[in-house]
Amino acid sequence: MGQLIAKLMSIFGNQEHMVIIVGLDNEGKTTILYRFLTNEVVHMCPTIGSNVEEIILPKTCFFMWDIVRPEALSFIWNTYYSNTEFIILVIDSTDRDRLLTTREELYKMLAHEALRDASVLIFANKQDVKDSMRMVGISHFLTLSTIKDHSWHIQGCCALTREGLPAGLQWMESQASAN
Ligand code: GDP
Asked: How many helices (H) and strands (E) does the chain have?
């Protein structure tokens, strides 16, 4: 199906880009994916497997995989890595306890051969919650400034109101058109 979409996109002059949405459970990945598509908040039961959706913009198409898993990040991700151009890492900004796990998994991913050229968009989600960590603190904890071999961008957001989501998508569009 991916190949068919790529072909259709090339006919219409549109470019398809593979995106994986990753993060620990309950960070807001699925909410973000469906907020890209609709103004409704979609309430879902936990999904087994993955959600996949196309986000079609005037000149770009993002083919997004939301990888849903019950436990912490695991090897299953390898299946999705090939052809991935963008990683969207979703962080629950209220969850200080799991940020260390996220940091470890982020650097494991960035070291993966198949993701060598991938750009990384980090959504610091749940910014609506009082006392959530701010972007400066998250950037510092994740030592983002040390990442030199991948393009990256951190964006605060609230998936419930969509605040910050268009700006993140815009950054991906600008990266996609620059490549
Ligand atoms: P996933 O497991 O990472 O896919 O997380 P979900 O998208 O299922 O979201 C987990 C929970 O966080 C749900 O109850 C969402 O309604 C809630 N949630 C997601 N984004 C936000 C946000 O920006 N702010 C708040 N307050 N809650 C959010």
From this structure: 6, 6
